[in-house]
Amino acid sequence: MKHFKTYLAAMALALSGCQSATDSCGTIELWYAQPAKVWMESLPIGNGRLGAMTYGGIEEEKLALNESTMWSGQYNENQNKPFGREKMNQLRKLFFEGKLSEGNRIAGDNLHGNQTSFGTHLPIGDLKMQFIYPEGKVTGYRRSLSLDEAISSVSFNSGGVNYKREYFATNPDNVLVLRLTADKQKSITMNMGLDLMRQADLSVEDNQLVFTGKVDFPLHGPGGVCFEGRIAVLADNGEVKMEQSGVGIKEADAVTLIVDVRTDYKSPDYKKLCADGVKKAIAKSYDELKQAHIKDYNTLYNRVSIHFGQDANRALPTDVRWKQVKEGKTDTGLDALFFQYGRYLTIASSRENSPLPIALQGFFNDNKACNMGWTNDYHLDINTEQNYWAANVGNLAECNAPLFTYIKDLAHHGAKTAEVVYGCKGWTAHTTANVWGYTPASSTIIWGLFPMAGSWIASHLWTQYEFTQDKQYLAETAYPLLKGNAQFILDFLAKDPKSGYLMTGPSISPENWFRTVGGEEMVASMMPACDRELAYEILSNCVQASEILDTDREFADSLRTAIVQLPPIQLRANGAIREWFEDFEEAHPNHRHTSHLLALYPFSQITLEKTPELAEAARKTIENRLSAENWEDTEWSRANMICMYARLKDAQEAYKSVQLLQGKLSRENLMTVSPGGIAGAEGDIYSFDGNPAGTAGMAEMLIQNHEGYVEFLPCLPIEWKDGGFKGLCLKGGAEATAEWTNAVINKASLKATADQVLKVKIPQGKKYRVLLNSKEAIANPDAKGLITVDMKRGDLLELL
Asked: Whole-angstrom Cα distance, residue 392 to residue 90?
């Protein structure tokens, strides 16, 4: 989006094993000594729209193709079940009177949506290649994914010939590029074909294999996009035979394949775009395509570097390292790799020109989630939010752009849901959403009756402003959408005749149940804690935006009036955070969702300094969940634990969760999984959220400023006693760099990306010189060890 702040590429990326965060001493990569046998061993490449999982087979190679708009389903004009304000008032009366059983029954019968054509994202299928090699052994096999260049590579020697393949997804040219070479002429003989999961007609046009079809996936209802794909085959010398059934290449020196797939999702000219895009890419040399790709990718990726001392295990294949961590060993080099992998996947999946934001699996679809009841859709009760947690702190603000476009679409359709279902102004969205404008509750209220889900995803609009300080973006993009959601909240709130508090509801605490005194298990109530926290966040953000933009003063006053009438965050009798307004018993204390702790993270309504009693209660809540029998440990809930323990500054518990996320809840390719046995899954199912949320949590361990000041290394585990980072971003507009030895900061810096008065906590361990733009600054720490510095955009504050 054109109004986002643009950050220039910084110095070359440091390896996780480098001694300095700004040294460049090799390649950061995932690498393996054998081909992938299953999807969870393959490696992802993506350009924000189009991508593939690469397997690296020798005799047979496979690339699983994906495109972000490959969706089944269609718009359903009857998705909202009419209810309205009068019936809502009657229903609320039941809840306020304590008639929860009757209230849940009526809500269950009337407040669900119609998901008959909901749809899901779907994989395209596989591009397959079979090879004939000279007689002789295969030696020197190596398969890798370079995070420095976003290139997947395969190399080996067969019969005395060195073979190499390179695969990448280029954003500038918007295609997949595959290059196959050998160090001896006429050594590439192969067949190439398609094993599609979607029904399609195949044809040949010149040097291109073309497949055209329409998605049909009845499991999640009728409808689906139309699509066209093209694979251009360019052989250096050799003989090429093009047929509908596949392509034969004999004795070529090298082969280049250019791949694109387009759909008609908001793109009526998709066939022309596909043909023109491939044609333009063909006109360029492989080196031109490659260099343009690397340059474009590096403008984003190179902004941040990180290491945790020497990478003692860099000579080991990634899957070996992963297994060791799974067995309980420590690998700080893998920690740094995992951190950067979260950023890599964000770049690969969400760019400014992406047609859609990151779904539950992004578009790296393993064909499993789409066959589950929960589908590869947009889950707005934490998963979609987590997909973008690494973007701002990871110096990738532009990658949020497709999310904001999507929120605008949600707001358009959610206005009808607000009016028809609730009789309210503004807009709302619930737990499950798709690309067809679905905004009511799911087909059941059990996990679907969460009208504040729209508020949760909308909070990212304000977060973007906090990091970028871009007032034009705030005025033109964020504030109108935040205001619309605040209007819904204001209209949705109802006064509790007993307490006098303003309350939302009936709604749920995703996706959990409570037990009443009578022993009944229910889901719906008035003002669960997460609703209170989300209402407070959105209304407060709107007030701040109104003040910054000097607009809507009367509306802002109405929000201030509402904020003071919201109930406080409450404690249970056992000292934990109360999940529901009443101190209900948790029906499933092992449940993976902890939405009542949003106030701790990603928000800062609960902090160690400002609300110590609530912070201790949050800790107790976490401990109770983790110690419950059969705790549902998933990739996203474990990543959440990293973030929350980081806010509590419990370094060893945070690091324990880092290791569990990497080992137990990731697979050989370091992509995170929802493990078998959770939510009806028979086996591991890939889920995108754990990777970026894990990265965000690790960043939170290294630097924080939610208390109103910057603190370096607030949650440093002993395993990271030596290390460094560069380029992490802070709210208020700053980029941070630090290097440390034996947990003592050697040097640190903050570069202002916006005008601000910056408070910084002086680190312990030695006496620091404070420089502002290379000149000694007068810095007298207060009783808390804080210094205050007035900084202009571009200023550099250094601690030496």
From this structure: 43
Is there a contact between 663 and 330 (Cβ–Cβ < 8 Å)? no
State the SS3 of 444-497: CHHHHCCCCHHHHHHHHHHHHHHHHCCHHHHHHHHHHHHHHHHHHHHHHCEECC
pLDDT reported for residue 677: 85
Chain center to CA of 659: 19
Give the separation between CA 783 and CA 800, rounded to whole angstroms.
Answer: 21
**CA-CA distances (angstroms) from residue 239 to 21, 178, 189, 249, 255?**
49, 18, 9, 6, 11
| Adjacent-strand bridge partners of 378 | 433
Side-chain-facing half-sphere of 574: CA atoms under 13 Å: 15
What is the phi-psi region of residue 113: left when phi exceeds 0, alpha when psi lies from -120 to 50, beta otherwise? beta
Q: Residue 6: its pLDDT value, please?
A: 33
Whose CA is closest to 531, among 497, 502, 573? 502
Contact present, 345 and 44 (Cβ < 8 Å)? yes
679 pLDDT band, cuts 50/70/90, is: confident
791: number of Cβ within 10 Å = 22
The Cβ-side half-sphere exposure at 2, using a 13 Å CA radius, reads 1
Residues 6+ apart with CB under 8 A from 76: 114, 115, 116, 117, 118, 436, 438
Residues, the chain: 800
Question: Is the distance from CB of 447 to CB of 476 less than 8 angstroms?
Answer: no
DSSP for residue 47? -
Other C-beta atoms lying within 10 Å of the C-beta of residue 427 = 26
Residue among 402, 414, 404 at smallest CA distance from 439: 414
pLDDT tens for 692-715 read: 999 999 999 999 999 999 999 999
Average pLDDT over residues 530-550: 98
Average pLDDT over residues 721-731: 98
Dump the DSSP string for 85-108.
Answer: HHHHHHHHHHHHTT-HHHHHHHHH
- Are the beta carbons of 799 and 763 closer than 8 angstroms? yes
- Angle subtended by helix axes 332-349 and 690-702, to nearest 10: 120
What percent of the residues of the chain are helix, what percent strand, and what percent coil, each to the nearest 5? 30, 25, 40
Global pTM reads 0.96
Enumerate residues 6+ apart whose C-beta is below 8 A from 539: 486, 489, 490, 559, 562, 563
CA distances from 617 to 100, 445, 581, 599, 622 (A): 27, 29, 16, 12, 9
CA distances to 92, 614, 648, 701, 718 from 652, rounded to whole Å, are 45, 21, 11, 10, 8
